[in-house]
Amino acid sequence: MTSIQLKNIKKSYGKTEVIHGIDLDIPSGEFCVFVGPSGCGKSTLLRMIAGLEDVTAGDLLIDGARVNGISAAKRGLAMVFQSYALYPHMSVRKNLSFGLENINLPKAEIKSRVEDAARMLQIDGYLDRKPGQLSGGQRQRVAIGRAVVREPRAFLFDEPLSNLDAELRVATRGEISALHQRLGNTMIYVTHDQVEAMTMADKIAVLRAGRLEQFGAPLELYNAPANMFVAGFIGSPRMNFLKAGLIAGAGQTILRLQDGQDIALSTDRFGRPASRPAVMGIRPGDLEITDSDAPLHMQVTAVEQLGSESILFGTSPCDEELVVTARGQTAVRVGDRLNLRPNPDAIHVFDAQSEESLALQ
Amino acid sequence: MWAFLTRTQGRGRLTLVDWLSYGYLAFGFLLIFIPVVWLGLNSVKTAFQIERQDISLIPGDYTRVARATVQGPDGKRIFFITDLPDWVLNWRDLSAADQAAQDVAGFLSAQTGDAALALRSHLGQTEPQALAVIAAQGLPDWLPRYRTMSASAKAEVNIEAALAGLSPANDRLLREFTGLYPGARLTSQILVSAPDPQTGEIRQWGVSNIDIKRAFTPARPVDAVNAKVTKLPTASLQADRNVQIAWENYIDPLSGSSYGVTVDFTRCLTNSVIVTIVGTAITLLINSMAAFALSKYKFRGQVMFLALILATLMVPPTITLVGVFKAIQATGISGSLWGIIIPGSATPAGVFMLRQYMLTLPDELIEAARMDSASEWKIFWKIVAPLALPAIAALGILSIVWRWNDLIVPLVAVATVKEAYTIQLCLLEFRGEHTSQEHYRLAMTMVSLIPTTLVFVFLQRYITTGIANSGMK
User: Fold this and answer.
1) Residue B371 to residue A99, Cβ atoms within 8 A
2) Domain named ABC transporter: which ranges (chain A) (predicted)?
């Protein structure tokens, strides 16, 4: 069992700093997902953990031991690459056994490990084929198999599903989760797809521009995002953001929207913050369409009927974009005007300046 | 094969583009093929034919006739001897072993008259026979030296007295031997048939050479003695050619029995094979390792190193020749095969070509291998080298051709040691200061083409993929 700790990890290319000091504690046996938009440094961070990139500053600890200066080969980790990086001139069997031969394992042991992994990943039928003769999904399994046979201390996945089609991606996602269940190893998984992150992770680290925005369990991030970025990144469709003013009154705190509508905030969740410009965040599913008067209004501009739910796109009177999801099928048409009542327990409030959440932790 | 060669652009019929393409291909093919065919045909011509600068494509010789000139008491007699065996006609071109194999005495004893005198001289029997007579008759011991004695020394001896009393045949023999009489001569001429300009009757003639650029060819009729030279119109000559393939051009040097050549061709061939194989192996190893470092490692001064390597491409090798010679001398490998192999081991063109190819290999493969605990050497050997095989093979072929055809470096490295000669130096040796053995040279040039041709035939598919992928020529 392996725990991985990052202490103020920094990375610079020349004078350009790309990772600005990240602290992260990944406990043993956890499935941790690094998620963030392109260029946020999540792959770089993973490659630093793998040992493929030097750590410019800070400490990287595996099981409490500092490994900054230890080469990739000696860290005992296994990595699955985005392109799979299978050795094209070797058969599947050779691909799987290459790493084991390098650490001089006995032949019998190699054979049994390769066969076990192949059976587990259902690639035992094409052990003698070359990677070029396999489909994308099969190659993916071989790449995972190559990591599995090593029996590594931890698995590192670098966007392993991005080259698969949608259907296969969902299936493989489940298989990787099952693999984690079965092996119990620590796994670090990099993706830019928040659905993958939400479905697979024990813990998610949201990264933006070389900084860690929030680290926590998926639902923790969903329910209590630390800032607007995390709130917007996690959840689909995206959270609605409406500009508002926070007014601290005598008895209660009021959120005043741009069109003058007031929404009272519960003191349980927000305490008594001072007055300031703010942003109200509300998830599309937490808006209820109602006939009676409601604080929010929306002019519908597009309707997506998915059968089990309907997604309604529109604009507020102040021309801010709004998205609402309604359960089941809807009779709403483009051009309709809707009254929307937000679920008071699901309202998020962010400081307009710092974009940090004002909710009490 | 046939379907490929007869492929057309349109449906069935040849279009203008087809005609042009096939024309262009045929032109290119002939451009390359004709010189090789020419070389091949010339390489089996006899030494005699090559020395005559006979430009005919067909190896072989005209039917020949011997023209004899014999000095007699009543002046010079010029006549033809027909139906002589080939070995007699070509006596001077035969090797010592071939000459010894013939029954000269038996042949001469069957001849009579002036023909016997001419043949005795031609076959080199004057001296042994004269020495035998001198010994048998107890003639003075200065007689064998008489020919080379000074005028004053000749005045002190009385040759006429010494020869007095000999039989006419022995008298004639000794007069020829001592140079009192000009020796009989025999020359080989081409036997032609042509109409007599005076009578119009078809006769046989002996001519020394047929040069179609000359309008008239001087000739003597074969059936007459002391006939005057007649000028025959060259166009009217009819000569028979007997195709004769001189395999000895190949056999002699390869079996080490070539006349007048001081180098051992099979030794040269072996040297060249060793130099080519060892040299190419070292070149491939050094170049691919350098290319791996330059393409896949990031280190300080990387661009500078590459620029430096490429800059050496711009220096003509002739400029560094003296430096190479000095280095070979200083390191003591001069005169050995290592002196040829080592200087050409690292080729900038090869490093560049392999680097360009290796740049196309994904870095993730190497990173995956590193994650798989492979050492850097193993990554190079097990991952990079196999994947760069097309480029390595292409460089291998180029290296083989460069090594095999190289003349300059061997000339600088081993010129003084004949045991270390490569094939190109060997070919140079066939044309010496005093002798020219063009017939051997042509044949051995042909032999020297075989290995490179075979390499191309078996490895050409790598050339196309390797060169196409690395963008090099």
Assistant:
1) yes
2) 4-234
Whether B62 shows a pLDDT value over 90: the answer reads: no
Q: How far is A86 from chain B (nearest CA, A)?
A: 7
ipTM value: 0.85
Matching CATH number, A4-232, of 3.40.50.1820, 3.40.50.300, 3.30.70.100, 3.30.70.20: 3.40.50.300
Domain containing B376: what range?
253-470
Contact present, A330 and A352 (Cβ < 8 Å): no
**Mean per-residue pLDDT of chain A:** 90
Q: How confident is the model at residue A228 (pLDDT cuts 50, 70, 90)?
A: very high
Mark which residues 375-404 of B lie under 8 Å from A by CB. Answer: 375, 378, 382-383, 386-387
Q: Do B367 and A72 touch (CB under 8 A)?
A: yes
Query: B340 and B422 in contact (C-beta within 8 Å)?
Result: yes
A103 to B367: CB separation less than 8 angstroms, yes or no:
no
Let me know if residue B413 belongs to a domain. Answer: yes
Which pLDDT value is given to residue B260? 65
Residue with tokens 């599309």: A284
Tokens, residue B212 = 């179609």
Sequence letter at residue B3: A
Superfamily holding A237-351: Nucleic acid-binding proteins (2.40.50.140)
Interface residues from chain A to B (CB-CB < 8 Å): 50-52, 71-74, 77-79, 81-83, 85-89, 98-99, 102-103, 146, 150
Domain CATH number, residue B291: 1.10.3720.10
Count of domains observed in chain B: 2
| In contact, B265 and B256? CB cutoff 8 Å | yes
In chain A, CATH 3.40.50.300 covers 4-232
Asked if pLDDT for residue B470 goes beyond 60, the answer is no
Is B204 inside a domain boundary?
A: no
Nearest to A102 among B367, B374, B386 (CB): B374
Q: Is residue B23 part of a domain?
A: yes
Contact B368 A150 (CB under 8 A): no
Q: Residue range B197-211: average pLDDT? A: 83
Q: Angle A203-A205-A206 (CA atoms, 0-180°, nearest 5)?
A: 135
Does A73 sit within 8 Å of B367, measured CB to CB? no
B126 lies in some domain: no
Torsion (CA) B154, B160, B165, B169 in degrees, nearest 10: 80
Give the whole-angstrom CA distance, residue B154 versus residue B172: 19
Distance from CA of A89 to the nearest CA of B (A): 7
Residues B101-138 pLDDT 10s? 888 888 888 887 778 888 888 888 888 888 888 888 87
Report percent pLDDT > 70 for chain B.
94
